[in-house]
Amino acid sequence: MVGKKWGVLLVVHGSPDERGNIHALKAFESLKARLFPPFPMAIGFIEHATPSVDDALDVLAKEVEGVALVPLLLFDAGHSKSDMSSYIQRARACFPKTEIIRDWALGTDQALVSILLELLPAADSGLPETIVLVGRGSLDPNANASLFYQGRRLWERRRGTLPLYSFISVTQPRLSEILEDLPPAQQDRLVLLPYFLFEGVLMDRIRNLGSDYRNKKGFSGEVIVTAPFGDHPSFLDHVAGRIRRLLRLGRTPMPKWPVIHGDGPDEKSTLMERDA
């Protein structure tokens, strides 16, 4: 990508809770400091906050010859598969002389498993514990399945007890249901492990469910809710590396998503590539 002035637009979901947007903006500033030499960078929010992705892209495209769209999204679901394509199509129509490239969501990057390992307490064979990995939940079944994939890789590296899996919204199993059925005598330590980037109302809901479990179940052990990791130094180092790769290669390999056909016992999974 030599010889062209490039800019990077970080695409973030946005939160109705301003704490989440402030958290994302702080992470953005820390990310910029990791990229040298510096180049034009902007942040755009899909919803709930400003500037919007389109507005941020309009400003950035006027000062560069190429724009790289980098979604700070955990999995390739609707926002990554559909919204990003809409942003690109509009940008190419508005700025036909500006080259537009994109990255995909973080997906099942091994680096994220390493960060979860840093957030978790060490496994202790003498301490009975329950770990519940908590995702946001999506209408995309492949995004939901990716949470299970990451959880299995986490266990392979940490061992200890097998984690339970849950979601805070949209799909099953819900964290509230998991905790309702979890006997308090089963563990001395309960760890809720949110697979989240930034603060917000859903993080509060997870913490409240942890407190409710202690109070309603009479649980006397330790309850740990790990922090969202969008500003974790290792995470930002990893995102900076992905940005350098995107600008060096000019493209990111198209991810392959398993697609389930049918809705009965004879369902079959295939691998399909979606157009960017």
Structural commentary:
By secondary structure, the protein is an alpha/beta fold. It folds into 2 domains: 6-106 and 231-255, Rossmann fold (3-Layer(aba) Sandwich), CATH 3.40.50.1400; 110-225, Rossmann fold (3-Layer(aba) Sandwich). Helix content is 39%, strand content 20%. It has helices at 18-32, 53-61, 78-94, 110-119, 141-158, 175-180, 201-217, 233-249; strands spanning 6-12, 41-45, 66-71, 99-102, 129-135, 164-167, 189-194, 222-225, 256-261, 268-273. The strands form 3 sheets. The protein has a 4-stranded parallel sheet with strand order 2-1-3-4, with helices on both faces. The longest helix is centred in the middle third of the chain and has 18 residues, at 141-158. The two termini are 20 Å apart. Mean pLDDT is 90; it is low at 260-276.
